[in-house]
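Moderator note: this is an archived Q&A kept for reference. The question asked for a predicted structure of one protein chain; the sequence and the answer are reproduced below.
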Amino acid sequence: MKLGPVAFVGNVVSGAFAAGGAAIGSQFPEFVQQYLQRLGGHRDEAWRFLENLIRAGMAHDNPVRAAAEQRFLELDKSLADITINQGFARLVAFVETVDWDIARAASHVFRPAVPLTPEGFAFAGIGLLSGVLAFHLCAGTCKSAWSLGKLAFKRKAAIYK
């Protein structure tokens, strides 16, 4: 089956959108992995700070110690919630427990990778489908606008005949 030039270009562009979507979608597991590394570091540092306060004999009711304990518990729970889950449950746990300051810091040093895990392939597949959908939405909108423009031009030309 021979494709015309417009169909060929459409297929190439659709493929590019699909590949781009897959590449972007597959980065979620990698970002979460890098976020978890930072989150673990924050949790460990919060624990060291709390240990120092305890060793120094700071009372339980001291606001500084209470805040340090609260911070450690939040970070520890977040780390456990995300780590225990896999796949889409990890996405939900990440969204529910994300610390935006840590996520922002992780995004500044994020390095893309190709996670060759079932989770990575699943998110790549979602990205691929999203890319194809985005292409078809864009192409459909452009096609509709083009058709309406041609129709309006034909009507205007018919009026002046």
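Archived answer notes: The longest helix spans residues 118-159.
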